[in-house]
TrEMBL record:
Organism: Aquibacillus koreensis
A single GO BP: regulation of sporulation
Lineage: Bacteria, Bacillati, Bacillota, Bacilli, Bacillales
Signal sequence segment: none
One Gene Ontology MF term: protein dimerization activity
Matches recorded under Gene3D superfamilies: Helix-loop-helix DNA-binding domain (4.10.280.10)
InterPro entries in alphabetical order: HLH_DNA-bd_sf, Spo0E-like, Spo0E-like_sf
Record protein name field: Aspartyl-phosphate phosphatase Spo0E family protein
Length: 56
């Protein structure tokens, strides 16, 4: 393997690792935003229900 090939491999490894980290970060963000949406929906429905009882 030439020095040039070794450098290319190293560069590709770094890019791959960076993409891997970013993908995981992205997955975490998606998961967290889904959890947040769920919590907001639950709170919203709870609030709606409690308002519904008051109006009766």
């Amino acid at each position: 393997m030439t020095e040039k090939e070794e450098k290319e491999i190293e560069t590709l490894r770094k890019k791959l690792y960076q993409n891997y980290k970013e993908k995981h970060l992205c997955d975490d963000v998606v998961k967290l935003s889904q959890e947040l949406d769920d919590l907001l929906n639950k709170a919203f429905f709870r609030k709606k229900r409690s308002n519904h009882h008051i109006s009766r």
